[in-house]
Design brief:
By secondary structure, the chain is of the alpha+beta class. The chain has seven helices and seven strands.
């Protein structure tokens, strides 16, 4: 499973169903949505997320995508997600990795199964998938596959997770790449976590002792 191996290498095999920013220190968290109506919030989030992702994926013609979908009982629950992805112009490539993670009752989601699928899409489809990720909390908006969607750049060792319209996490194993993004998109960083990011990318200079 070459795609899974790439992802495991970037996360050291750790689970990242929960907030990337808090589970992998040294990353970035961006605030996305603005506006009064749900549509305005999503459209603003889409614009910001697209610009940030263009910074991250500007060195290739394809993007490695990792989808995660929780199902309670059978894999047939995936059919709706596949239909919604097709509406977004996304077809799951034959060259893909699929793996499963059983979830026990102690998990926040209850007992069930996480289905993972990793495959590449043309970079031109990045915005389509961003839409799918950003509308996850708006059941009336479509396409909406209700999947967790992660974008991976193996060359830059970066994983991007737009968790919903409110924000997006970016983690990586090359601090210089993240630092450049921190400086360029500083005005979009989430203020709530800004202090933690400043400690990593803008440490305070100590004065010279007398």
């Amino acid at each position: 499973m070459k795609f899974k191996s790439i992802i495991d290498g970037l996360t050291e095999g750790g689970s990242y169903r929960h907030a990337l920013f808090y589970n992998f220190p040294g990353g970035l968290r961006f605030e996305l949505s603005e506006g009064e109506s749900p549509l305005d919030q999503v459209l603003t989030a889409l614009r910001k997320a697209t610009e940030i992702c263009n910074d991250v994926f500007n060195d290739g013609d394809s993007v490695l995508v990792h989808l995660q979908r929780f199902v309670f009982s059978t894999r047939f629950e995936l059919r709706r997600s596949i239909r919604e992805l097709a509406m977004a112009g996304i077809s799951i490539a034959k060259d893909r990795d699929v793996w499963y993670e059983k979830v026990e009752e102690s998990d926040d989601f209850g007992e069930g199964l996480w289905i993972n699928c990793a495959f590449k899409v043309p970079a031109a489809k990045l915005q389509n998938l961003l839409w799918c990720a950003l509308v996850t909390d708006f059941s009336s908006m479509h396409p909406n596959p209700h999947c967790l969607i992660y974008f991976v750049n193996p060359a830059s060792a970066i994983i991007v997770h737009p968790y919903d319209d409110r924000g997006m996490d970016v983690i990586g194993r090359k601090p210089a790449v993240l630092e450049a993004l921190y400086k360029k998109r500083n005005h979009w960083l989430l203020d709530y976590d800004r202090e933690a990011m400043e400690q990593t990318f803008a440490p305070k200079k100590t004065g010279a002792s007398l």
